[in-house]
Amino acid sequence: MSYRSTSSAFRSFSPHQSSQKGANRTPTRSIGSSSIWSSDVLAVVSSTCPHSNRRNGTMARAHPRPQLGSLIPKEPRLCTLTNGAPLLSRQFLGLPRSRLESLLASFPRLVSPTSEHTVLEASGVRFVYTPLEDLYVLLITNTQSNILLDLSTLSLVTRIATELGSGGRGGAIGEMDVMRVSFEILSAWDEVISLGWRENVSLQQVRSILEMESHEEKIQEIIARNKEHEAKEELKRRAKQLELQRREMTRRGQNPYSTNSSSGFTSQNNSYTPSAPSYDAPAPQRSYNEEHAPAPTTKPFKTKGMQLGAKGGKNNTGLAQALDGLDAEEPLLMQRHEEPQEQHYSSAPSPAPVAAPALTDVSPFEVPEQQDVHLVVRESLTLELNRDGGVDSLSLKGDLDLRIADPAKAVLVIALPPPSSYDKAIDLQFKTHPNVDKNAWAQRGEIKLKEGKKGFPVGQGLGVLKWRMTGTDESVIPISINCWPSSDNGICTVNLEYELENTSISLHNVLVSIALPPGSQPALSEAPSNGSYSLNPETSRLDWVIDEVSVAAGTTSGSLEFEVDGDDVDAFFPVVVDFVSQKGLSGVEILSVTNPADQSQVDFSIDSLLAVDKYEVV
């Protein structure tokens, strides 16, 4: 008889053995909800029957257990089952292979084609079987076993074989389906019967066991996916940051792909006086940027690096005097810092007609005299417009800092317009400091401490309020830029226009910088109606500078036109815009500062500034 199995040998487990001879009946043992009798038997596949142990010459004593048998193929007619061979078999008690094969070989001869029963008894064992299309599922046990439990076990293992063989879709299965998932079927049967004893499990429980799902494993997979996602986001953020740095270096005339900035320092050293090489590294970099950029592009924030160009012999007073006269020294430091720049302008060759803007002062605004209560309002604008004038992205961020010098004024109330008074269309979102009374701010627009707080910190700045706005609302745009390039016979004519959209504010140090094709020399066909222009050969950009754009100055609009060789109209983008203003776009303003004890007014000073973080026309 041919024998096909998924394993070369049957797996055997030693039964509970005893040296006693004879068949002594013992009390029943409960399995699940059924009971079976114990007897001196030997397991056959999934059956127990009396048999001599050839190894030690003793009778093996084992508990009769409902066991699992094998899948046996049959021919189209039942009369041909004598030629059938087992596909796979699983035994749970020790039994010689020859005995097992003889039992399996006798089964096809015992099946009658006209019989309607699915139970057979022969040779002291019971065959419990069920047809499964072209296959039989067979369970071999002893004659004393619980027939109801045997039928329940047979039904469960049949459903398992059908589901695994059909891939969960149901329906008929064949010999190839069984062989394809033979190991899965055996593993599932092991969950139903363990060492010959029927486990109290259902089909759903067996399915869950086979899936082997682990909650901890899922958590680890989620953590791993989150880490991978965070790593990708970090790479994107760094790549974007590097790209912005390259653009900035390109705009400043530096090589964005150099490992260091020595090339920028070399050109700087050639232009400066012999004392220039003694500067620290940040000083030449600072001077280089200011050398090739007009004065309006410089933000009105002073840094310590600007003192490196100052001449010695002056202001050598004590530290206290230096701190007291810091505001008075800033204009003098600006003038001293301009001296090497002016020397460089006089020594550098001037390109084709360029009107260089006058470099007078870094900040167009006067530094206010600070009172004991000083408020600093800062707003930063990020704006990206398309060539048609629409808004692609807009972001406005602002914050309010409070600085108190007198401890007697540490407790105060700052009055601002309440949040409900702002235009709902701009969707302005506010966030207060954790120590600020949120109800007072939401209802009355007051910045004051919560109950129980002693006072605001003295001698240091404290951010008490932040606001943010995003969207595509065109009404927030302070100034619009129109760039109209047109190509004809290898010559591009570019018309550049600006218009002040928000007439309630004044913009200072307005810069409109347009890219030029590399190596090109623009020819001005229409002089700028306002301001002046300059050509930066290192960055290949034309910079148009207007000192002030406002209704009072009569410079609410202006235009400039030039021609340049080329036919690529996309080479003039992006157009970069920069400006500063003393009035913000959000409408946040300080109405009053009062003492809550007696409601008296408190003198205060305010420093307000609107600056551009990024403004491009793409």
TrEMBL record:
One of its GO terms (cellular component) is Golgi membrane. Its main location: cytoplasm. SUPFAM superfamilies: Second domain of Mu2 adaptin subunit (ap50) of ap2 adaptor, SNARE-like. Gene3D superfamilies: 3.30.450.60. Residues 346-357 have a biased composition (Low complexity). Residues 370-618 form the MHD domain. It is found in: Cytoplasm; Golgi apparatus membrane; Cytoplasmic vesicle, COPI-coated vesicle membrane. Residues 1-29, 252-276 have a biased composition (Polar residues). The keyword Transport applies. It is a peripheral membrane protein. InterPro entries: AP2_Mu_C_sf (IPR036168), Coatomer_dsu (IPR027059), Longin-like_dom_sf (IPR011012), MHD (IPR028565). GO terms for biological process: endoplasmic reticulum to Golgi vesicle-mediated transport; Golgi localization; protein transport; retrograde vesicle-mediated transport, Golgi to endoplasmic reticulum. Keywords: Cytoplasm, Cytoplasmic vesicle, ER-Golgi transport, Golgi apparatus, Membrane, Protein transport, Transport. It holds the Pfam family Adap_comp_sub. Residues 1-32, 245-319, 338-357 are annotated as: Disordered. The coatomer is a cytosolic protein complex that binds to dilysine motifs and reversibly associates with Golgi non-clathrin-coated vesicles, which further mediate biosynthetic protein transport from the ER, via the Golgi up to the trans Golgi network. Oligomeric complex that consists of at least the alpha, beta, beta', gamma, delta, epsilon and zeta subunits. Belongs to the adaptor complexes medium subunit family. Delta-COP subfamily. This is Coatomer subunit delta. It comes from Microbotryum silenes-dioicae. The gene is BQ5605_C017g08412.
